Amino acid sequence: MTCSLLLPSLYYTILLCVRRHQQDELTNSIRLLNTLAQKLKAGRMAAGALNLASPEVKIHLDSAESSDPIDVEQKELRETNSLVEEFMLLANISVAKKIQEAFPQTAVLRRHMPPPKANFEKLQDILQKRRGIPLDVSSSGALAASLDKCIVSI
Question: How far is CA 25 from CA 17, 20, 66, 90, in A?
C-alpha cells in the first residue's frame, strides 16, 4: 500500500479512536498519544513557535476535461492531523539532537535566524493604519501572539 493510500486511512482510524467512547487498548493508547501531542504543541507555542499553517483548499472542477471551477471547499483540520504533525516534529528534533551530540564539529543543522525587523515595517504600518492592529516583532513569541490577534481581529 502506498503512503497516499495509507495516510488517509490512518488519520481516519485515529480520528475514530479519539472520538468514540470505546475503551479497548488501542483506543486508549491513541487517546494517550493525542493528549501527549496536545502537550507538545502547547509547549512549542509557549516557547514562541509560529503557527503559520493555512487551511488546505480543495477546488472542484466542472469536469475532468474542463478547468472551470464550480466550488471551493476548505478542508477540515482534525485532531489527528495535529497528533501526527507533533510526533513528526518530535522525531525530527530528536534526530537533530542525536546528530549534534554525535558530530558536534561537523553537524549541519538548519536553524532559522530571526528575520530582520525591517522586513515587517510595511506590514506593521499597514496593519496599524488600516486596522488599528499593532504588530509586535520583538520576539518570535510576540510575533506569534500578534499574528494570532490579527486573525481574530480580521
Answer: 10, 13, 48, 24
Residues 14-39 have pLDDT tens digits of 666 666 677 888 888 888 999 999 99
Q: Which cell numbers in the block locate residue 135?
A: 504588530
Strands 69-74 and 57-61: antiparallel
Q: Is the pLDDT of residue 136 over 90?
A: no
At 28, list the grid cell: 486508549
pLDDT in tens, 53-70: 656 666 677 777 766 667
Comparing CA positions, the residue from 92, 81, 77, 98 lying closest to residue 37 is 81
CA distance 114 to 51: 15
- Report the 3 state secondary structure along the chain: CCHHHHHHHHHHHHHHHHHCCCCCHHHHHHHHHHHHHHHHHHHHHHCCCCCCCCCCEEEEECCCCCCCEEEEEECCCCHHHHHHHHHHHHHHHHHHHHHHHHCCCCCCCCCCCCCCHHHHHHHHHHHHHHHCCCCCCCCHHHHHHHHHHHHHHC
CA–CA separation, 72 and 31 (whole Å)? 33
Provide the β-strand partners of residue 71.
Answer: 60
